[in-house]
Amino acid sequence: MYNKILIVKHIESEGAGTLETFYKGRGYVPVVLELEKTRRFPANIKEFKLVVIMGGPMSVYDEEKYTFLKAENTFIKEILNEEIPYLGVCLGAQLLAKALGAKVIKAPVKEIGWHEVRLTERGQEDILFRNVPKTYSVFQWHEDMFTVPNNGILLSDSTNTINQAFKYGKNAYGLQFHIEATPAMIENWLKGELGAAESKNIILESYKNKVEYERRAHIIYSNLLKIL
Predict the structure, then answer these.
(1) Residues 6+ apart with CB under 8 A from 224
(2) First vs last Cα of the chain: how many Å apart?
(3) Which is catalytic among the residues 14, 72, 111, 180?
(4) Strand partners, 31
(5) For a Cys staple, 23 with which of 28, 42, 84, 133, CB 3.0–4.6 Å?
(6) pLDDT score, position 156
(7) Do 119 and 134 form a contact (C-beta atoms < 8 A)?
(8) Does 180 qualify as catalytic in the annotation?
(9) 3-state SS, one letter per residue, for the chain
(10) pTM higher than 0.85
(11) Is 142 marked active-site?
């Protein structure tokens, strides 16, 4: 069956959210690889139409603590060599950049919550962001950011001078923001992380943005289908 999508999770709480739901509803079969439970990557990646690598609290350079990161780096390079469509979210975007020889560095500011990002000229032209506004609000949770690899294309950035999305080759994308996040996921991530008032404000904003955010995510997911 050649309609499988591989979803790689680094920790239990950072799943694929609306992305997994969207593709399930369109006849795709998500295969979830949980790196907390297994270190084995699929031997035959050609059976997957798309590989999605999710976020996580670790740095791309934490290879001594999280030994699976070395194997994951090799796995991503294999995906690129086979030109299998790739979508990296947050840590997944940073891992893509690292596999391509780019640096992952501390961002100018730590972003947690809802922030506005903007499409570059190349981003406005790219199929992934077709019918997405030039500026749009996204949910962020990161303190590192990727630099754009050689021959990569910056698709989105922010007023904080943080790179937000890039493309490499025909079908490899990295998104710094959490396109997949639902209010319930965000509420779970916030437990014990921030002060009560700040968490409450972010949660309220998440539920306020829910319908529009999912609608925009579905546009991007639909655009991604065009390259599968």
Answers:
(1) 50, 85, 87, 128, 173
(2) 15
(3) 180
(4) 6
(5) 28
(6) 98
(7) yes
(8) yes
(9) CCCEEEEEECCCCCCCHHHHHHHHCCCCEEEEEECCCCCCCCCCHHHEEEEEECCCCCCCCCCCCCCHHHHHHHHHHHHHHCCCCEEEECHHHHHHHHHCCCCEEEEEEEEEEEEEEEECHHHHHCHHHCCCCCEEEEEEEEEEEECCCCCEEEEEECCCCCEEEEEECCCEEEECCCCCCCHHHHHHHHCCCCCHHHHHHHHHHHHHHHHHHHHHHHHHHHHHHCCC
(10) yes
(11) no
Q: What is the pLDDT of residues 14-47, one digit of tens each?
A: 999 999 999 999 999 999 999 988 778 998 999 9
**Active-site position among 10, 72, 178, 214:** 178
Whether residue 178 lies in the annotated active site:
yes
Position 1 pLDDT exceeds 60: no
Q: Which domains does the chain have, with CATH numbers?
A: 4-225 (3.40.50.880)
Tell me which of 14, 20, 90, 214 is the catalytic residue. Answer: 90
For residues 128-151, b (16+ Cβ closer than 10 Å) or e, as one string?
bbeebeeebbbbbbbebbbbbbee
